[in-house]
Amino acid sequence: MEIAQLIERCQKGDELAWEALVRQYQSRIYGLAYHYLGNAEDARDLAQEVFVRLYQSLGICTDTGTFVPWMMRIARNLCIDHIRRKKARPPAEDVSVEERPNLPDQSRTPEELYAADKRKRLIYRALQTLTSLNREIIILKEIQGLSLEEIASILSVPLGTIKSRSHRARLELAQAVVALTGNGEGAA
Amino acid sequence: MDCVTFKEKLADFLEGNLTREAHEAAKRHLSFCTDCRREFDIVRGHINLLPEEEQASLTRAILARTSGHACERAQQILCNYMDNRLGDEESHLVTLHLEHCSNCKTIAGTLAELGEILPGMAELDPGPYFTDAVLQETSMLARPRAGRLKGLKEWWTGLVQRPRFAWEAAYVGTLIFVLLFGTPVMALRDFQSNRNSGFQSRMREAVTSISRIVPETWHDAGEKAGRIKDDMAGRISERQKAIRNSVSDMHENSDKGWSARIKTYFRSAGDWFRKMLGGLQGLWDYLTGSDNSDTENG
Q1: Where are the domains of chain A?
Q2: ipTM of this predicted complex?
């Protein structure tokens, strides 16, 4: 089913359509949140929050053609807010394993997430060495496949800056990957 | 031609500046002198005395003393090269650079690899419980509503498409008409006209008071507005008068013809009733067969 039809059904309160929408985009939103936050648990909580916001704001989504960039913008803004909050407020002391409720253990490390592909894990680590703007450009353009115009709109940065930075960001990432490979981390 | 003469004339021989006799003599010398032939091949570039590693280091040394390394320039346009966005000449120059620069070649290879791997990193599995958790969260929220404009449009479409809409619209229209112009049989008709006259006098007073307050530039406008208002009020009262007259004429006419109309109506209703009774009688006779048997018996 096309995304426009899916959204229209969601706006009419069709729970099945909403479930289909969640299933269709949850991996993407979770992937985006994970690349921003670098923590599987935080990324999952934030991805849930993104979908709650989407559900509440579906009524104002009139242009279904820009649904994905709009969803990415919501996710990105929530990620940035989360990072700022975390910086301002250090994390509370960890709860001991015995005190935790009996929830299924879903927390996974980057190593586990990318266990199948060591090269991806290396790229992820190289990504962390970039500046925040270059990292965001890589995440939104190269990974999520958004256009330069959409990225400029989401980041509120002039299009020319995004154009010139996108090549630089790719090159820096490649150089970082080469450097990490040279350090023997590629074989890890 | 001996070896010393050949070496002296080697440059002219390569450039083709020798006479025919001298050229033939040089060729003859090359055919039997191995030393001169080797030198000839070295000068022509057919034999390279430097090993490849030393060639590269020589190039780097020369560039370091002249224009500097070209890697920075190559890497500036490397992404465009990988995306095939360079012109033929620039693309050829980058290709040549990559053939001799292992560092840039590695980076180019990594860029190509990233182009294949990065899109595959867009999606990550959030785990088996994620969808259920989201649906549980959102099930407690109010259903999403369409935007105001869309909602208004839907409400209006639903309202217009209702079967009773025409009746309701007629009712509302009549109500508005009565409120605006009154009815000829209205018990408070006089009150309405008094109220209108009171309203008119109040309006006149308001316009006069405004004209006192506002600056002189607005004074004329106030007077004009007053005149327009008076004119409008006069027209409305004329229209009301005409409607009242026509309605009272209708009432008078209808009073005269009322009894005649009732008589005609009851007469036609009586005729219709008698016809219907006759028809029913015939049907009853047909069903019971009493008429036929009477005829047959008769």
Answers
A1: 1-98, 102-188
A2: 0.78
